[in-house]
Each structure stands twice: as C-alpha cells, then as structure tokens.
Design a protein that fits this description.
This protein is mainly alpha-helical. It has 2 domains: 226 residues, Rhopdopsin 7-helix transmembrane proteins (Up-down Bundle); 155 residues, Homeodomain-like (Arc Repressor Mutant, subunit A). It is 76% helix and 0% strand. Helix 2 packs antiparallel against helix 4, helix 2 packs antiparallel against helix 8 and helix 11 packs across helix 12.
Length: 390
Amino acid sequence: MNYIIIVGATQALLALGVLLKNKKNNGQHDNILSYLLASIFLHLAISFALNVFWPHSKIHQQFNTFIALAYPGLLWCYMRYLEHRGKPIDILLAMLPSICASIGYFWIAAYVINNAGELPPFIKQYNSMSGYAYTVLYIAYPLKILAQIKSISVFWKLEKGMVRLAAFLLLLIGLAFLIITIWTQLFDITAYFSFIHLWLRVFIYSILAIICISIIYVKISSFLYVHVYQPEKPKEQLSANKEEEQILVESKKQRSFPVEENEKNSNLDYAGILAKVEYLMSNQKVFLDPDLTLESLAAKADVSRHHLSETLNQYKEKSFYQYINEYRIKEVVMLMDKCRKKGESINILSLAFQAGFHSKSSFNQYFKRVQGCTPSAYLKDAAHFNLLKA
C-alpha cells in the first residue's frame, strides 16, 4: 500500500515539477493540469502520512477525503481549454464539490482533535453524502468527456490520448463506487468492510499513479516538440505533396498538347490568381483555418485546384503546404513578439494551434525552415534571429 502511494505521490510531484519549470510558457490548460497534479500529490501525501503515523486509526479508515472530488471536473476543464472553449467559471464549478466537502472534512477533523480521537456522530452522514458525490462525479464527468473528446483537434493528439485514458480510469473508479453503493444497500458487508476499503484504496492509488505517468509522458513530449527540431514530415503532408506532384506532372504533359490548348493555358491570368490568393492570406487570414486545403483555397479564389497549384509552384516556387505554413509561422512569430512586449506568458504550442497548424511536427519543421532555429531558441534571442533574416 505505502509503496503504491509513494510511487503515485512521486510521479505527481515530478509531473508538477515539469509543468512549473516551464511555467512562463504555460497556457491555461497547463495551469489546470498543475491544479490536478497538486491535488493528487496532496491527496497521496496525506494518505501516506496517515498510513505511517496512524495506521490503525478509526478516522483513517472511515473518513472520505474531499480532494479527490475535484479530479473529474478538472479533467473536464482541461479538455474544454484544449478546445479553446474553457472559461474561469468552469474551473470554479469543477472545484465546488471539493470546496463544499472540505467544510465537512475540516469540521470533523477539528472534532476528532478536540475529543481525543473520538469520531463524531455525523461522520456517517458526511461519508454517505461524499460517497454519493464520488459516484455521480466519477461517472458523469468521464462519460461526458468520452462523448465529446472527438471535438479536440488532432493538433493535441497526445493530450487527447491522455484525456481519454484518464477519463476511462476515473470512470472505473466511479463504477467501483456504484457497485459498492448498490452492494451495501442490498447486503450487510460489515464483515468485509476492511478488506473492501483496503483494495479500493489500492485500486484508486494505482490509477492516480498511472494518470500522473501519462501526464509526464505528454508534457515531456511537448517539451521536446518545442525545444528539439523534428525533421520527419507528417504522413498527411507527404500524401498531400504527392497529389501536388501529380498535378505538376499533369501540367508538364499539357506542354505537349496541341498549340491551341497551350495558347488557351497561356491566356490564364496567373498573376491575377496569385493576387487573389495573397489577398485571402494577408487580409482575411484564411490560413488560420487548420482544415484549409488546396481545394478549399482554390474555391475561395474562384480558380481550379490545378491552376492554383501551378501558380504557386511557378510563381512562388513553393508547394501549397509550404506556402500556407510559412504564413502560419509568420503569424506565430508575430503573436510571440506581441506577447513578449506585453509581458504575457507564451505557450508556443497554443500559438501554433491558434495560427492554424494541425501537427506539432510540421510546426517545428516549418519554424526551423522559416526562422532558422527552434521556437524556444527564437524566444531566447529573437533580436539575433530577426537580424540574421534581415
């Protein structure tokens, strides 16, 4: 038992340290993770202290903690902020059950201290009410998260996987509470109470340790995305580039067509097409749409996808993805400089998502290509890299 608790507490503290070390670059969703990890660490640290110093205390065996009531709600808030739909009121609502339960918790704790360890008569009511709250929150929130998790952008692929795993594990805890609640209503389990209580705690502490490990994995991966250049091209981009290569092949074939056909193509206003596209990119910032494709941009410019691709390749010497992603990098740099001037915290990945990127690896690839450095290196010495580009 103590081994599982200390492992979980260590993982929570380690994950919290990773987040706090990069606090200046944290977004609100990272702050919510910090709240969650701090709560888990406090929960496990208190449990460890009780196990070591008061292992046979009645209050330890018959007293529900209030801290864990916040876990499902905080996970829900984290998902909301990944979707860019989160609000401060969501955090308050997520913490409200835990805040209310804390009043009863500290009231009972004060009674026990003042009465030499005697349990108050109203502890049964507290345990009953908090037990029902656990059951409802640990089933309602995870089901809600699993039902809506598809709305998280593919940009947050790792975070999405972590949220799905955590929601599933919390749901298992909720179902365990539900089974125990039904069992106690139907049968007398007094003789098995200590056994059930022990293994339920082992089950919960193990799940909290797994959640902490998954958070560490996601945050370290995100750190590497920002600080280490990833040279691999995303699969979706490779397939898109193949399509453009096919278009180029077709355009070369057109040069062997009869004279009338070549004359027809030569009458196309490529400069006009480029001007339309430049206007859409600069004035309407259509590149902010992460789902922007060659077809959709061609439709906005009122030209065929073939002519748009040919225009970009001949007049800009760039593929479609290279063209729009360079605009996105310029947008990220502008946002970074703007945040720096205002003294605001800078979450690089959040800015990349805001600028329209749907892949962290492609963001790093194009940032390196356009700016000549990694995003974190630019943040450290923007003046130097801007001077080099100039």
